[in-house]
């Protein structure tokens, strides 16, 4: 029997109540409960629809020139966790900060600033994106969108081989094709200082749908986590799709959920999504994405059981949650 959802109710509540709900709503499930829940489409849709989105009112961001740097006018960074860019060039120009549509996101066990969720760079924000990578000492970037999906979703922000982006010189050192995604090791140089960034590009997530199976996402999550664990001193992991809330939210939520299952043998999808929305409004953009998250973690829990039993991980199970409604960002 599945545990009841705790402290969740309608989104039509005062601001303080919404924040309280996002902080306290929880539904931790064992692997068997997770398997059962992942098949209850109607209940998951109802659960998802009751989660407050916590979107930002534009009046909360009184920043000159901000609108020119937002890919979508309704997808804005929550002020409390917003990434603020600071650099010598901005200070010389009399600016205290430069705006970027990005938020710090807490990780597993509430680790602060484990991730940054951001929109896909635009032509006029590519330099800002690399400023953020440099400022946060990020050495991992996860991109989950094509450059174009009927219309532009993300500006190409790295060179084929070498290129200049503002004060940054970039050089692609290695390109490796994996099953469902591509890895690039990029060298960033400013003056005499250089750093290496690993760029993961998951370009096979279909437009307006969820993936046909959980395999590529789980492999990407495992690959990124292995890279993070082998470099414990690394900075914040930057994740983006187009708007920075849909597919970005799925990746971060899957990463946190996998760690929960690995360390506690339970996953709290509801609690994860609520906490993500505290940091960036609208994370997990559709009910289909929410169900796909349950399916992904249910599949991971099966892999853990098979691994514990000494057998190989099973072939990823195809899922039937593809949707042709709503824009997947």
Entry keywords:
329 residues; alpha/beta; Protein-Tyrosine Phosphatase, Chain A; nine-stranded mixed β-sheet; 9 helices; 11 strands; 33% helix; disordered C terminus
List the helices and strands and how they pair.
Elements: H1 15-24, H2 31-38, H3 41-49, E1 82-85, H4 88-92, E2 98-105, E3 115-118, H5 126-135, E4 140-143, E5 148-149, E6 151-152, E7 162-165, E8 168-177, E9 182-190, E10 193-201, H6 215-230, E11 237-240, H7 247-264, H8 269-279, H9 287-308
Parallel strand pairs: 3-11, 4-10, 4-11
Antiparallel strand pairs: 1-2, 2-3, 5-6, 7-8, 8-9, 9-10
Can you walk through the features of this model?
The active site is at residue 241. GO terms for molecular function: protein kinase binding; protein tyrosine phosphatase activity. Residues 215-291 form the Tyrosine specific protein phosphatases domain. Residues 44-300 form the Tyrosine-protein phosphatase domain. Helices cover 33% and strands 18% of the residues. By secondary structure, the protein is of the alpha/beta class. It has one domain: Protein-Tyrosine Phosphatase, Chain A, CATH 3.90.190. The protein has a 9-stranded mixed β-sheet. Strands 5-6 form a two-stranded antiparallel sheet. Helix 7 crosses helix 8 (269-279) and helix 7 (247-264) runs parallel beside helix 9 (287-308). The longest helix is centred in the C-terminal third of the chain and has 22 residues, at 287-308.
């Amino acid at each position: 029997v599945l545990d009841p959802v705790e402290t969740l109710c309608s989104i039509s509540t005062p601001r303080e109540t919404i924040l309280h709900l996002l902080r306290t709503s929880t539904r931790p499930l064992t692997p068997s409960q997770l398997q059962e829940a992942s098949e209850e489409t109607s209940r998951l849709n109802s659960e998802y629809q009751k989660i407050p989105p916590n979107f930002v009112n534009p009046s909360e961001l009184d920043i000159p020139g901000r609108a020119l740097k937002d890919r979508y006018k309704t997808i804005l960074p929550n002020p409390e966790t917003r990434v603020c860019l600071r650099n010598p060039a901005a200070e010389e120009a009399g600016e205290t900060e430069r705006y970027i549509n990005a938020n710090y996101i807490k990780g597993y066990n509430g680790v602060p600033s484990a991730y940054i969720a951001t929109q896909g760079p635009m032509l006029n924000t590519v330099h800002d994106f690399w400023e953020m990578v440099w400022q946060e000492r990020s050495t991992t970037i996860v991109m989950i969108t094509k450059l174009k999906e009927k219309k532009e979703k993300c500006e190409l922000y790295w060179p084929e081989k070498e290129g200049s982006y503002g004060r940054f010189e970039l050089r692609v050192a290695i390109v490796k094709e994996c099953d469902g995604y591509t890895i690039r090791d990029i060298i960033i140089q400013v003056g005499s200082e250089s750093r290496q960034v690993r760029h993961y590009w998951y370009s096979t997530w279909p437009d307006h749908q969820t993936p046909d199976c959980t395999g590529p996402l789980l492999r990407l999550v495992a690959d990124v986590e292995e890279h993070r664990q082998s470099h414990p001193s690394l900075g914040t992991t930057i994740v983006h799709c187009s708007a920075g809330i849909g597919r970005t939210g799925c990746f971060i939520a899957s990463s946190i959920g996998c760690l929960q299952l690995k360390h506690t043998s339970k996953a709290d999808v509801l609690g994860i999504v609520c906490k993500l929305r505290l940091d960036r409004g609208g994370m997990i953009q559709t009910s289909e994405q929410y169900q796909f998250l349950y399916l992904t973690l249910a599949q991971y829990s099966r892999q853990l059981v098979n691994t514990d039993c000494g057998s190989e991980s099973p072939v990823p199970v195809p899922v039937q949650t593809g949707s042709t409604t709503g824009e997947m960002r």
